[in-house]
Amino acid sequence: MDDNRRILPDFLHRAYTQIINDTEHLGVSVVNTLLPGNLTGIYDEATKLILIDQRLISAQQRCTLAHELVHWEHADETCSGTLGSKIERHARMETASKLIRPCEYALAENEYDGDAYAIACELDVTVQVIEDFRTYLAMSQDMAGQRQNTLYRI
Ligand SMILES: [Zn+2]
To answer: Which domain, by its residues, includes 144?
Structure first.
């Protein structure tokens, strides 16, 4: 398979097992197992293997799998050091943007008065992903603002 062309299927409204089915042809294997400590998932670029902790509840499974698949998409090899934290931050933002549609988020935020836990339940994601999505939205708005400023300067 051409490593430069890794394209993920749509995660929106797809359950954990559906995402596994959707990605079967990508050459990446997903194994449920017991992971040490607080680890929920691991991606190994050398073997194209994703490990998912078997004790996770369904929203966690789904979000962890999506996150590890984003690492696969970018062929991420490290999660340590400065580069690692940059990669990790990027993967988290991208995962949130792939799991949540902005209009659905806006409706849920209205409906549940901004309660992250209730919004997470409604959208079948983790609270962490909701927090990442909020950061993602804030960053997108900052970037849009900067573009606007550049335009005004010209
Ligand atoms: Zn990660």
So the answer is: 16-153
